[in-house]
Amino acid sequence: MKLCVFDFDSTLMDGETIDFFAEALGIKDQVAAITEQAMNGELDFFESLQQRVALLQGLRFSIVEEISQNLPYMNGAKETIARLKKSGYTVVCFSGGFRVATTYAKDILGYDADFSNVLHHKNGTLTGLVGGDMMFDFSKGDMIQRLQNILHVNRANTMVVGDGANDRSMFAHADTRIAFCAKPILKRDANIIIENKDLTQILEKVL
Question: What domains sit in the chain, N to C, each tagged with a CATH number?
Fold first, then answer.
């Protein structure tokens, strides 16, 4: 058994889901600035997530769903996942973003499971609250250890792919650590660095 874990935003998907939501409210620049700081490791991820989601209060959930179902997936995402699965990998998505996007993308891109966060909504409108599996800086590292135990996979057979500071915790538990168009803080912990927006380049490195 082999395990590959992908980040979602700016890895499997070309962009940050929350920035697309913010654009619908006319506050993209404000939210994107917080996202950038969080991905660079300049802000605590939990605090930054709460700040950004609070700014989305009042957005209709139907708009959230529509945006989530029309996100631009990264070049080569579907093909890369298919090849990895054919080579014996269980492929999973961890996202500090939102299940409304990652679960929809699962059947399109072909990964086996997704772990992410849930935007709380009432009466069809976002409340500005959030909860879920990937709320903290340590969440991805915590979850990957649980999966390794369940699947009986060691770190030698684990590959991780991400771009931002909140991916560091899962990088600590994998021998193959791919920084994909990543922030400098993550590149320091990687042993494979890919600078082009083409996920199929992973296949050349690992298969």
Answer: 2-206 (3.40.50.1000)
